Amino acid sequence: MVIGRHYGQSVTVPLWGIAISGGPQRILVDTGVHDCAWVDANLGPCKQAPEEHLDRALREYVGWGVDEVDIVINTHLHFDHCGGNALLPYATCYIQTAEWDFAAAPLPTQNPYYYEFLIGRESLDHFRWRFVSGILDLMPGVRIFPTPGHTPGHQSVAVKTGDGIVVIAGDCANCMENIVDELPVGIVHDTAQEIASLRRIKKIADLVIPGHDPDVRAGSAGIELRAKLKHIERENPVPGPLG
Question: How many CA atoms lie within 13 A of 101 on its CB side?
């Protein structure tokens, strides 16, 4: 979760999908795993309650059917962030070109997290994908922006809301600790890029939805970043000038 910290501790790692409503189109950021039993058998322990399945969660939390989602934004193409894409028959999927290219030939250290059948070369029409290079203002108040480091083509999403700017971080930040302390996640492709991306989020966000933070609550707009930063400042005040 956080590089260099918490060795030996066990944590239940949630997987989040985020619905963006209130605009002209229904947007879903990340779609979770495609089949928890498959993940459990091939990668590691995975538990999913019936109400956490994508179709039921969309219906019960947001009031959408799977055939009503217009746009999917995948922060990256690891198995736990794009597994439900194929369940959304009419959604157009947005991904950074660099991520699509890396997924076709990942480094050996990341090869276990990419599965071709999940990202469309078999199960999802190639022409449903839209390839992004850099920043894209998808619509007023919704901006896709690159946050490489975890993977070469990782992207995050900034959403302007009445409560401030919410950044959907994906796995650029597994949890708030990554952002507050500017510490990379455990799986990193480029450490320097990862730290720069964390600082970018830290600079613009009022609230953050990290990719795997147990403190995120379903149905919320994320965790307040400014409050956490102020708490850190109170605990560690910067000394004033001598004189």
Answer: 8
pTM assigned to the model: 0.91
Phi, psi of 196 (to 5 degrees): -60, -40
Cβ 232 vs Cβ 185: under 8 Å = no
- pLDDT tens figures, 179-200: 999 999 999 999 999 999 999 9
Instruction: Tell me the residue type at 241.
Output: P
To which H or E segment does residue 196 belong? helix 191-204
Length of the chain: 243
Q: Which amino acid is at 237?
A: P
What is the C-alpha to C-alpha distance for residues 106 and 175, in angstroms, rounded to an integer? 24
Using CA atoms, how far residue 228 sits from 124, 176, 232, in Å, is 40, 9, 6
Q: Which CATH superfamily is domain 18-235 in?
A: Ribonuclease Z/Hydroxyacylglutathione hydrolase-like (3.60.15.10)
